[in-house]
Amino acid sequence: MERVGILRMPLGNLQSVWNALHVSGFDPEYVDEQSDFDHLTHLIIPGVGHFKAVMDHLVSKGLPDKITRFAQSGRPTLGICVGMQLLGKSSNEGGVNSAGLGLVDAVVTRLPDDGQVLPHVGWSTVDLKRDHPVTQGLKQGRDYYFVHSYGMKAGSEDIVIGTTTYGSDFVSIVGKGNVVGFQFHPEKSQSNGLHLITNFALWDGQC
After folding, report:
1. Is 207 an annotated catalytic residue?
2. Nearest to 120 by CA among 79, 169, 160, 83
3. Phi and psi dihedrals of 2, rounded to 5?
4. Which residues are catalytic (predicted)?
5. Is 157 among the residues known to form the active site?
6. If exposure means fewest CB atoms within 10 Å of the residue's CB, which of 77, 118, 157, 175 is most exposed?
């Protein structure tokens, strides 16, 4: 039986993620620094806001080690929006270089100011670059809902599952082993987003 944990954050899309899982037939639960992660089969890291502020919160609660141990156990781990960015090595948001969880070989930088309005808010297309269990059954070129000013740059093309163009390209779905991330909000992306969430919750972490 799937036991999906949603990491409790001070800011974020917690309730909408919970609702999306619940309407898809799962019984998610919120977890925090006092929770035992051992009984979980899946972990979701949501996030909204400033990278460093969110990471500082995790550090203050002693959560990075718990998240890392969970991911290293081979169980499926998902980051959403800033939660995806936290999976990388670092971010330069606000002109400060802040360390991430380092679960994928990527860095986070501000989207180029090339005439596009920032933050990037609204529906944009995801171009799937390779097959992955979390995207199984989804058609190419579907739109998802984004809210962000920073994007991920991968150190290797091997971890890029999907990209999106907003002035220039950025990684919108990342994956390494049992760890995946969505820069967009699947819980706000209607049927395609719910499909992704269902795929993740049923995934065994194998690729």
Report:
1. no
2. 169
3. -75, 130
4. 81 (nucleophile), 185, 187
5. no
6. 157
Tally Cβ neighbours within 10 Å of residue 105: 14
165-186 CB burial, b ≥16 within 10 A, e <16: ebeeebbbbbbbbbbbbbbbbb
Place of tokens 């019984």: 27
| pLDDT tens column, 155-203 | 999 999 999 999 899 999 999 999 999 999 999 999 999 999 999 999 9
C-alpha R_g of the chain: 15
Q: What is the pLDDT of residues 88-132, one digit of tens each?
A: 999 999 888 999 999 999 999 999 887 889 999 999 999 999 999
What are the structural domain ranges in the chain?
Answer: 4-202
- C-beta neighbour count of 65 within 10 angstroms: 11
pTM: 0.96
Residue from 42, 81, 148, 195 carrying the catalytic annotation? 81
**Residue linked to tokens 């944990």:** 5
* Per-residue CA distances from 192 to 125, 187, 189 (Å): 12, 9, 6
Q: Are 193 and 174 a contacting pair, CB within 8 Å? A: no
